[in-house]
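PROTEIN DESIGN WORKSHEET
SECTION A - STRUCTURE
LENGTH: 107
TOKENS:
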């Protein structure tokens, strides 16, 4: 047979109401993983909170899932790539750098 490996990584989304849009990729299981999150506000004088939660393997620290809040579709591909690459978030500077990539992708 001519079998090919299935490599597509599914995502889920939910629009919970005005101003709350979730996009998730990978395993987002708070009971089984450590989480790291970065939150920011949008434009001045608004309540536009945006953020990203990284779900990391408790054994090796690799990112296994990403939940983006109010960051849009562009973040889905970035999350898939991080998970495929086995990204490990180390230190506050590393987390901040990756979070900035998500914010830039959303603009």
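SECTION B - SEQUENCE
RESIDUE ASSIGNMENT:
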């Amino acid at each position: 047979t001519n079998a090919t490996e299935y490599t597509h990584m599914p995502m889920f989304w939910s629009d919970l109401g005005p101003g709350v849009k979730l996009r998730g990729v990978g395993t987002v299981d708070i009971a089984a993983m450590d989480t790291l999150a970065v939150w920011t506000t949008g434009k001045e004088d608004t309540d536009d909170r945006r953020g990203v939660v990284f779900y990391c393997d408790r054994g090796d620290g690799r990112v296994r899932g990403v939940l983006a809040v109010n960051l849009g579709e562009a973040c889905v591909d970035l999350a898939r790539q991080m998970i495929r690459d086995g990204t490990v978030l180390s230190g506050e500077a590393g987390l901040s750098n990756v979070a900035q990539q998500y914010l830039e992708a959303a603009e």
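SECTION C - NOTES
Helices lie at 74-85, 91-106.
The chain is about 25% helix and 35% strand.
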